[in-house]
Amino acid sequence: MNNWVLPTLTIVLPVISSAVTWFVSRRQRNNSFIANLQQSIDLLSEKYTKALNELTILREENNDLKAMQHELLCSLRRLEAENKELKVVIDGMNLKINKLKTVSRTK
Description:
This protein is an all-alpha fold. The chain contains 1 helix and no strands. The chain has one helix spanning 2-106.
């Protein structure tokens, strides 16, 4: 009876230990793969959050710039209107000056 136990164990034990090792290492590989995927997801989520925050800041800055641009355009329109009025006044004054010059020359 001892004659067949030792050779059988010699053949069966390495097969069983190989199978157990394969299952354990397979589980570890799967766990490592899942851990790597989770790290990638966390990194992408962090980058997405950062990009979203930057986008929010840029939108706020853009809104501020648009408001300032609107104010500048309104000021520019007011200045253009004032400039036209002043040109009319200057033209009127120039006409008076020219009339005075012609009157003083004729005398």
